[in-house]
Amino acid sequence: NPLDFSCFPGENYLSKERILPIKTSSTCFYKQCTFCTHFAKVPYKEYELQWIEITLKKNHAKYAFLIDDMLTKERLLRFAEICKALEIEWACQLRPTSDLFGISKELYEGGLRSVSWGVESGSQRILDLMKKGTDIQKIPLILQESHEAGIQNILFILFAFPTETKEEYMETILFLEKNQENIDLICTSIFGLQRGAKAFEFPEEYGILEIKENTRTILEGTVSYVLKQGLGNEEARILQKKVQHRMDTINKIPKIFKYSREQVLLYK
């Protein structure tokens, strides 16, 4: 059924405008990223866009953030048609895959203003190990097209994926610097092993020798591990401190938006 956001009074929001969180599918259609536990182990199902359109109309939406982990090209274009008619600006999360070439202008005209891209690494070996399904040679072209259309590019970067070397870590830094003209904000994180991820279920494929789970009273348990080779988490943190200033100079919007990315829709 169409969602009703009227029970959330506008005066309770920190921002001047409400940004509606909208989910258009049951889970991620890709389900391959080896570090991810976000997707549910249920069949992929797309919700009727007609219902979502009614939700947007019923709530007099001006802004929306699609919280889907991924959306298909066809889904993006159809949602853009809806938002164009309703004059809604929106943001979403995508993988920078080559099938998205050629639609940035159309998406911008349909209200898309910001994309959080799952770039993760500047090393093709690491991307392949992550099973991202992306080509490091084509990612810059996608970012360029998006930027030239007027869309903000926010990049997710994941350091210290198992077996990543210092040289591969620096490949990512160089990739970011080389493409800084088309990057608005970099959101970095250090890899953490989680139960349910493919890297957890098949550790030997990722050079993980030993896994130890530590239970906690209230919060979910933590996972520690021993690597056969590559940067450990602490080594990655030390290295990040040394190069953080290089990434900071690339950012064109305040770093605070790392923690509330949907709010960039209101940042002019």
SSE blueprint:
Layout: E1 19-22, H1 49-58, E2 63-66, H2 73-86, E3 89-94, H3 104-109, E4 112-120, H4 124-130, H5 139-149, E5 152-159, H6 166-178, E6 185-190, H7 198-201, E7 208-214, E8 222-227, H8 233-248
Parallel strand pairs: 1-2, 2-3, 3-4, 4-5, 5-6
Antiparallel strand pairs: 7-8
Our measurement of the CA-to-CA distance between the termini, rounded to an integer number of angstroms, reads 34 Å
Low-pLDDT runs: none
Share of β-strand residues: 15-25%
Q: Could you estimate the helical fraction of the residues in percent? A: 25-40%
The overall pLDDT average reads 93
Compact overview of the structure:
By secondary structure, this protein is an alpha/beta fold. The chain is built from 8 helices and 8 strands.
Structure description:
This protein has helices spanning about 50-60, 75-85, 105-110, 125-130, 140-150, 165-180, 200, 235-250, and strands at about 20, 65, 90-95, 110-120, 150-160, 185-190, 210-215, 220-225. It is α/β, with parallel strands linked by helices. The protein has a six-stranded parallel sheet with strand order 1-2-3-4-5-6. It has a two-stranded antiparallel sheet with strand order 7-8. The chain starts with 18 loop residues before the first strand and ends in a 20-residue tail after the last helix. The mean pLDDT is about 95.
